[in-house]
Amino acid sequence: MLLLTAALYTALALRMPGLLDQPGTAVHWALTATVTFAWLLTVQVWWQRRTKVTALLAAALSVHFLGNLLNIGLGLREFGSPQYLHSIALGTLFFVLMSTAQLQVVQWMRRTQRWPGTLALIDTLMIAAIAGLGVWVLGLDGLVTRSSGQPLLVGLTLTYSLTQILLDALTVMLLLRGVYDRILWPMIGGLLCFAVADLYMVVGAGAAKPWLSLLWVWGLTLLALGVQQVMHTPVSLRPTPLPPTVRYALRRLPYAALLVCCAVLLAGAAQGSQRQLGITVGTVAVFGLVMLRQAHIAQVNRQMQTELEASRQELEHLAYHDVLTGLSNRASFVHFCEGSLGANEPYVVFSLDLNGFKQINDTFGHAVGDRMLQHAAQQLARTVAAPGRVFRWGGDEFVIVVPGVQRSADADALARLIAVNIRTPMNYRGHQLSVGTSVGYALGRGNRNYETLLSLADDDMYSGKQRSGNSR
């Protein structure tokens, strides 16, 4: 219903723009209906959720509702008129209540450890400062100067502008971090409509235009639709990682802020004395050099962080892998069994060593022996498919863990396949070198029994070696 009345008002306003300021017309009735439905929608959300945030949102939209009724009754007025003073007072209260509701969300996120961090807050304030500086230069300073004889109007104008800019910046920052996107997307649209209308008022030195009511109506409509999403959005939603392009832009946000400040300083100094111009140019030059220095330091820090992360990953890999064969090592065996196996998951542990390896190592040397170990490791890795894992235990000993195996027949079949594949010969200077293996295994369940199963698998392997008469 809200969208329908907003669309009807838009159609009537575009068709009969001359009637926008005339009360009692169909345009004004459509406007009144839209404003009323938006207000009722937010009150409904508060009634169903009954939280401090929804109460503040409902209060803010109620204030906006009163402001719209005032505009409907009195029409749009020029800046500084008595009617305008009432309107901007209600508008200021609206943005104060909206900002308070947003800050309540921030406080809740900080208490529940969902807030993206202090850096996000600093970025928010920086964006607000840049926007505030731009609005001031575009014409807010002129409005303040014109109303210098009315302290109340000056205070309301500045408060209105500051709270609106802060609310917009905080909403954008939360949206960029994926927080409450279903709520914030329509809210961003509504706040953007308000911002465009108010910016026109600033640039136009307070000149009101009838078509501005279209922006205010759609701003209110989108804002109410965003508030409605509160009923359908889970409170457990957490921030998502920033996209790379957003991270890149935020890293350069401080430099953009300094550039804006420097541009404003130079523009102002160009209209002043020669002495002031020289001081400003020198100050801007210092700022520029500081920016270059900080950018260089930031680049060096990022490079150091990249190298540190690469070193950390390399050390972690070395801690859990055998250097010679690239297989997982003993430490990885414990980590795998305790972290990857379920509490009651069946699995089999194989224990094996290489038969004939010692003869190759003694005859051809340790370098060839190392190559044979690498060759054997490759054959084992090809034989055991994921989620199974092969571990080098030391010397020519290996351990294999295969989850999901609970029958002896399956374990026997895999043991025979291991024994066959390990005999695949390795060519060395015309010699076909190969090794055999003795395999023992033990079946079990649970991620706390792996040491017992490994001991049983060792016993089974040595029993098999004694029966076959194999040795290293």
TrEMBL record:
Pfam families: GGDEF. It comes from the Bacteria. Gene3D superfamilies: 3.30.70.270. InterPro entries: DGC-Regulatory_Protein, GGDEF_dom, Nucleotide_cyclase, Rev_trsase/Diguanyl_cyclase. The chain crosses the membrane at residues 29-47, 54-72, 84-106, 118-140, 152-176, 183-203, 215-232, 253-271, 277-295. Keywords: Membrane, Transmembrane, Transmembrane helix. Residues 345-472 form the GGDEF domain. This is Diguanylate cyclase. The lineage of its organism: Bacteria, Thermotogati, Deinococcota, Deinococci, Deinococcales.
